[in-house]
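Homework-ish question, so no full write-ups if that breaks the rules, but can someone show me the predicted structure for this set?
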Amino acid sequence: MRQRNNILGVDPKLLIKDAAKLMPDPARRGFLRGAASLGALAFLTGCDIVDGDTAEGVLRKVSEFNDGAQAALFSRTKLAPTFPESAITRPFPFNAYYDEDEAPVVDPAAYKLEIAGLVENKKPWTLTELHALPEVSQITRHVCVEGWSAIGSWQGAVLSDFLKRIGADTKAKYIWFKCAEGYTNTIDMPTALHPQTQMSFRFDHKILPRAYGFPMKIRIPTKLGFKNPKYVVAMEVTNTDHGGYWENQGYNWFSGL
Amino acid sequence: MTAETMTAMPADTTIHPGWVRVCHWINALAILVMVGSGWQIYNASPLFRSLEFSKHITLGQWLGGALLWHFAAMWVLVVNGIVYVTLGLATGRFQRKLLPIYPSQVIADAKAALTFKLAHDDLSHYNAVQKVLYAGVILTGILIVLSGLSIWKPVQFQELTALFGGYDFARCVHFVAMAAIVGFLVVHVALALLVPKSLRAMVTGK
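A: Not a homework solution, just the prediction itself:
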């Protein structure tokens, strides 16, 4: 993972620096202030739009509007482009808000996927049971919110099949995922039911390595990378939006591609 | 916007009808926000190792804040841009002001401009260099919006993304279009300050 130079726009040092930069920090709350271009803006409009929670409130409202616009643009049947094996980015980058050696270590023997919410059968799933689910494969582009992208190969079960299997109420609005390190993520039901949305247990036909989310990642090629949770330990079918790690800090909620 | 300004023809003294001035300043604001926030977004994963934008000239403080600005101002930019281009074509202003463009005239006027010999006595008439730059920046504006759409929605608009040579190349197109627009802005603002009556015309219309 030390050689990421082959990925357009990704500097390995920068990734780590960036991860640190992106750590939640109360000091970053006032992200609307302090830019020179804002000075120009205030000058042009003759009013101080920089001041305060009003601007932030307006931006968040627009972001919610953008959630709706993206949900309307989202096609339940349109597939993300797929690529040949030769297009896979090697090595595929590790990316998180923590360093690679701080990634969670999950004990496969003790692992159980917890199921909660609007589901008929809430029996937890062992890894052996999950691995026995019918397997599909995809080679798709992972697009990071930072702008870089990388092509990867994932194998696992179709999430919508699994939801039917456990008797999930697919009329519910959201699926909430919880991860081993405390990361959380909520996705909309139409995306959960998209044919390419996958519970991934393998990367490039090998058991998912720790860096890529062992034992289970939710691979969603129609969403930005941070909406593809790794180290997933629980899922809840719900009508309440529980938000998510990055969404709560200001990243757009829908973040569709 | 009154019917009077809508139909303002060379006969009266109006250089820029109301809709041009309104669209121009809304656009100026939207571009500032888009560029400032775009630079902050760029910093999260620079295309060029040696190029990063100083925090003093970016907007949004961090990637999340910059994205909120970028995806809010995009609506202003696009809606205003559609109104401007539609009216520009429908009123015949674009055809009248920006066409025809003769390469020989562009070269001659560029030489004159660089030696400060270009006349500015009639603001309602564009010289060939202005025609090229204004037509060029409108086309670049369309290019930056389309390349932006293609990297925002590389699945839903995948045909468009493919047209731009794929996601990664579309990012480069988006960046180069930004550089072209910023380059235009530098010249545009410098010249507007050198010829203050042109700035006045964009405010008062006369």
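Now go work out the reasoning yourself. Hint: Confidence is low (pLDDT under 50) at residues 1-37, 43-49 of chain A.
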